[in-house]
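Appendix B, example 12.
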Amino acid sequence: CLVVHRPHDLTHAQAVTQIYIHHYNWERPNQAITCNNQPPRLAFPDLPSLPALPDQVDPDHWLAAVHGRRYQRRITSNGTIKIDNRAYYVKRDFRGQSVTILVDAAAHELVVEYHKRPIKRLPIRGLYNEPLDFETYYEAIRKEARTQWQLMMHHYPRVTM
């Protein structure tokens, strides 16, 4: 609908998008077996509404789900390990050695263990440490996704023939 109507500002874009949404859900026949060639809202008039977006989001909530998990890593020649594309310095004396990383969510730390003994505690990088309003959270994850995409494109360049 945006290609056809070519809105000239945000208000116009929102208006034509709302018209399209109405057409898509109430007028356009849908060929899915479940819709029986009817528009989706006619085929399913009693669909539940989606919950409202939250006012605030805890961007570090994921940490609770990995609390207590252990991960294996090999220490590189410069004494670091890599977790979630972030390098953490452990110690050069352990280069080439395999270590276990324990996630301590309560302390917001990674505990580096060698032969089941803790050798270093590292603060987890990239945490926000506070709830964010939804718009700020959205912009933060959007920026993070773009950065990850750029890193991926840098590591896996297109092959041209």
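Residues 134-155 form the longest helix (22 residues). Residues 10 and 25 are 22 Å apart (CA to CA).
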